[in-house]
Each structure stands twice: as structure tokens, then as C-alpha cells.
Design goal:
Number of domains: 2
Organism: Aeromicrobium yanjiei
Order of helices and strands: EHEHHEHEEHHHHHEEEHHHHHHHHHEHE
Pfam families: Relaxase
Helix content: 40-55%
Keywords: Plasmid
Strand content: 5-15%
Distance between the termini: 41 Å
Radius of gyration: 26 Å
Strand order of the largest sheet: 1-3-5-4-2
Protein name: Relaxase
Structural class: alpha+beta
């Protein structure tokens, strides 16, 4: 069950919208399924009209108006509770019980030991995407004129939703249970993007920052790549310092006459905060000095302090080394324990960054590569305490992101891209098997959907290639028949078979006891003192 919280100061506007036909005429039979006793005494579960909606809004607002209480940030608290489309629909009674339990646990009723808030829960059919849901509207002014606290309400709503999932036998969201998931996009951002026919700016910026972070070998290069990619970048300094950068924010370059909209790294993704990005870069005084110089140049909108490899030519022969390194990484991941959260999160982060870089280079508009990057990014955004301060980056992945971002079509022929895609598919297969082994079946399905729904479309634009290419040295990888099997076809013993389409996840786990598998060295190191 997915909660989505907003705040406002117009109870009438919210209730009229909930009782209306909706933006896409998707609202059907809007009615109350629950509410506080004073409102439910006057209103039942009949279909709401505009007059009914305004009357309910007046009831919600009564304590605030009568007692003259103002709430900074808005006195109307609104949360939608939504099920996945494939979960089906609940009854009104079930939603009513869930809504009542939800507001109790959120501290809005007398169950908190305080005066109650007025609230209602409205149901008006499934969403445009087919999700069964309700809307909970709460007045944050209690009956005695005190204000309800909404501190940390989003985290509380996630926790309460998880508890109610178990209580009512609903599907438990693995992203909440295991502490990963992408940052939410606000409804206003979605509405603006839909109006413009584009994706939300936050999503675009996150993909670009993830690509530039993966392609960069140090912090200074990251700053230059962001600027070279058309982003506005500004540092956040330590208090009273200009030589210690502790954070950053980015913005898309706005049209003439408009102000940029800035997003901090943490608002783009848990894995895109500056400390998390730094965990894969060198930490030396020289690197620190070079990075500060680039941050200062970005802040003043000056030329880069010391341009680096991002402006150089790429040797096409580097593809051979890159493919070998990525192949070795795939082999190593098969021996990583399934409970090594840090190693699997790192793989997801870097794989997502590679597809993001590929998308930036080849897709004029976000396409299947961008979709694959987004799907994989959710598994890299684990809580900070679940990853080490310092991790060992995978050279092959950083090199791949750099090559895909900088190489022209003549230097990155379709055959090389096809072979590279095959190798990346095998990494995804390892990730799919890992999610299955730890019983994260929703996550496994999402990885499989990224392959079947997005990357197959990419593979169809590339030529078939033999598994064994001259660029790959003998002995660097298992044989073709060991590594690849087309769905529905058994490998031919001793034969080198061409790959017509990349392999798809089968859902089967390459089982070996996790206790018998060696662990990748996480590269623990001292915290960065800047």
C-alpha cells in the first residue's frame, strides 16, 4: 500500500476535486468510506455532490475557523493510500477499517490521548492506471484548538502502511521492507510534466547526475561532466568555509528570463548525495584541491579549472578492455553472498549509471535505456547505514559509462554495442537471481520487466553478434555454451553459438550456499574528512 502526502489550506478545493469527475474523467461514484463521528453523523456513503463536498469541507474547517487558529504550511493534510493495479480491489468496509486504523496510528484521533482532528476518507473508483485507492483528508486543528504534529509524517505513514499491509493481508512492499526505492516525484511536478509532454525534471536530472557520477573517476571530473552536460551546478560549503564542500545541488538551464529550479543530490536519489558519490572516488589532498577548484569555478560560472579526459578522444580499442572487465565482474557477482547488501547495491548503482550514460548519448527523448536505468536505480538507493563508507568501484563499469557517453557511432560500432548489451544482460541475470534468492520476488519481477520491456527493444535495433569476439582474450570468460542459452533451446556441446537476442531471466537461482561464497572486499576505509 503506497501513501502519498500533500499539504494545503483549501479544504473546499480538495473536497470538490475528490467529488468531481477527475482530470481524466476517471472518478466514479465518489463517496465516504470513513470519517470522524461528527461528520459521519450527517453524511453517509451516498454519492457526493459538489454541495455535499463543500458541506464536508466546512465541517472539517469548523474548529480552525471558530477558534481562529492558523497552521504554517497549510492546515489541510491529505494522503492517498493506493494499491498496485494487480492487487485488485477492496470493499468499502475494508477501506473504511484501513482508513480508521491509519488515522489512529498517525496520531490524528483520540487514540493519541489528545483531542481529535476532523477527518474523512473518500473513495472514487480506481485511478487512470487502475490502482484501487482512497483519499484521507484531515484538518490539522484539533477540536480544542491545538495543532496536530506532522513532524516526520512521511516516514510515519510508510511505517504505518507496512503494519496495515500485514494486518489486512495486503501485499507487503519490498522497497519499504528492505529500505530501497526511488525518491518520489511530487504531484505538482507530475502535473507540470504531463502538461509539457515530458518527464519530470527531477527524473531527468537524476538520470544525468547518475550517468556523470558513474563515468567520472574523481570528484573534479564529475563537476566538469555535469557542467559539460548542460547542468547548472552549485556547491554547499561547510559553515564559514569556501574550501570545504559538503553537498551540492543541480538545476536544468532554464529558458531566458526564468529562474532555475534547484535540486539537492539527496532529493534526486539516496545514492546521489555527495558522500555516497565520494565513496567511489579517490580521497587525497590533491584530489580534494582539484575538486574544490572545479566547484568554485561552477559557482562563479567560470571555465573549468583543469579540463580532463571528458574532452579527449576515446580510443576504440578500449572497448576490448572494457568488455573483459565487465565480463569478469559478472563472474565475480555470482560468488557474492546474497546478503551482501552493499555489493549488490553498488552493482545496481553502476549498472543504472551505465544505462543512463548510454541513454544520454543515443536517445533524443527518454526511451528504453532510460527506462532500464530508472528501474535499476531503485535497488541502489538503500539506506545509508546499509552500505560501507568506502566501496571499491568497478573499473569496467566506470569505463563503460565513459565510453558510451563519449564515443561517436563510428568509434562505437553497433556490433560492439550488441556484445556489450549481451554482457550487461548477464549482469542483470545475476541481479535477478540474487533478488529471487533473498525472496524479493517483486524486485526480481522488476528486473525481469526491465529486460523484457526495455532492453529487448534495444537489442532489436542491434545486429546479431558471435559470443566470442577477437577483442575478448581466451580464458577471460566462460565458454559461450556455459554463459548463454537462448530461451527454449539447449546449447550444442562444443559449439560456439551466435546470439540472436540477449538472454532473458528465467527466475531460477544459481544456488550455492551463501555461507560457502566468498565476499567481495567492500574496501572499508576512513571517513572523508572535509
Amino acid at each position: 500500500m503506497m501513501p502519498n502526502i500533500t499539504r494545503g489550506d483549501r479544504a473546499g478545493g480538495l473536497m470538490v476535486y475528490l467529488a468531481s469527475e477527475g482530470r481524466h474523467n476517471e472518478h466514479e461514484n465518489p463517496h465516504l468510506v470513513a470519517g470522524d463521528s461528527q461528520i459521519m453523523a450527517w453524511h453517509d456513503d451516498t454519492e457526493l455532490s459538489r454541495v455535499d463536498a463543500l458541506a464536508i469541507a466546512a465541517e472539517l474547517d469548523a474548529p480552525r475557523r471558530q477558534l481562529g487558529v492558523e497552521v504554517p504550511g497549510g492546515h489541510v493534510w491529505h494522503c492517498s493510500l493506493s494499491l498496485a493495479a494487480d492487487e485488485g480491489q477492496l470493499t468499502d468496509d475494508q477501506w473504511g477499517q484501513i482508513a480508521s486504523d491509519f488515522v489512529d496510528e498517525m496520531g490524528f484521533t483520540e487514540a493519541s490521548g489528545k483531542a481529535p482532528c476532523r477527518w474523512v476518507a473518500v473513495r472514487h473508483g480506481v485511478s487512470k492506471a487502475g490502482n484501487d485507492h482512497i483519499h484521507v483528508a484531515v484538518s490539522l486543528v484539533r477540536e480544542d484548538g491545538t495543532k496536530a504534529s506532522v513532524w516526520n509524517d512521511r516516514n510515519t505513514a510508510q511505517r504505518v502502511s507496512g503494519e496495515l499491509e500485514v494486518k489486512y493481508g495486503l501485499r507487503v512492499l519490498e522497497s519499504r521492507q528492505n529500505g530501497y526505492g526511488i525518491r518520489g516525484v511530487k504531484p505538482a511536478e507530475l502535473a507540470q510534466a504531463e502538461k509539457a509532454g515530458t518527464e519530470p525534471v527531477r527524473v531527468t536530472l537524476g538520470r544525468k547526475v547518475r550517468a556523470y557520477g558513474t563515468a567520472s573517476v574523481d570528484e573534479a571530473e564529475f563537476v566538469r561532466r555535469c557542467r559539460r552536460g548542460g547542468l547548472l551546478v552549485r556547491p554547499r560549503y561547510a559553515s564559514d568555509r569556501t574550501d570545504v564542500v559538503v553537498g551540492y545541488s543541480v538545476a536544468a538551464r532554464p529558458p531566458a528570463g526564468e529562474k532555475p529550479v534547484w535540486f539537492g543530490g539527496g532529493n534526486l536519489g539516496r545514492d546521489l548525495t555527495l558522500p555516497r558519490l565520494r565513496s567511489g572516488w579517490p580521497d587525497t589532498p590533491e584530489e580534494h584541491t582539484a575538486a574544490v577548484a572545479e566547484w568554485n569555478a561552477a559557482k562563479r560560472d567560470q571555465r573549468p579549472a583543469a579540463p580532463g579526459r571528458e574532452v579527449g578522444e576515446v580510443d576504440p580499442q578500449v572497448w576490448a578492455e572494457c568488455l573483459t572487465d565487465v565480463g569478469k565482474l559478472r563472474d565475480r557477482m555470482q560468488s557474492v553472498p546474497v546478503d551482501d547488501t552493499a555489493a549488490w547495491a553498488q552493482l545496481a548503482k553502476e549498472t543504472s549509471g551505465v544505462f543512463a550514460a548510454w541513454s544520454i548519448q543515443t536517445e533524443g527523448q527518454p526511451g528504453p535505456l532510460a527506462d532500464a536505468s530508472m528501474a535499476l536505480s531503485r535497488f541502489s538507493q538503500v539506506q545509508a547505514h546499509k552500505v560501507p563508507v568506502k566501496r571499491v568501484p568497478q573499473p569496467g563499469m566506470r569505463q563503460a559509462a565513459m565510453l558510451l557517453m563519449q564515443a561517436t557511432s563510428s568509434k562505437s560500432p553497433a556490433a560492439s554495442q550488441a556484445l556489450f548489451l549481451n554482457t550487461m544482460m548477464q549482469l542483470l541475470k545475476a541481479m535477478h537471481d540474487h533478488q529471487t534468492a533473498v525472496r524479493r520476488h517483486q524486485a526480481a519481477r522488476q528486473v525481469e520487466a526491465a529486460v523484457r520491456g526495455s532492453l529487448v527493444r534495444v537489442s532489436e535495433t542491434l545486429p546479431p553478434v558471435p559470443v566470442v569476439a577477437s577483442a575478448i582474450r581466451d580464458g577471460d570468460r566462460p565458454s559461450a555454451t556455459d554463459r548463454f542459452t537462448m530461451p527454449g533451446h539447449a546449447p550444442v556441446a562444443g559449439a560456439v553459438q551466435p546470439i540472436v537476442r540477449p538472454p532473458l531471466p528465467t527466475g531460477r537461482n544459481n544456488s550455492a550456499s551463501s555461507t560457502e561464497r566468498p565476499t567481495l572486499d567492500p574496501g572499508q576505509g576512513p571517513k572523508r574528512g572535509r
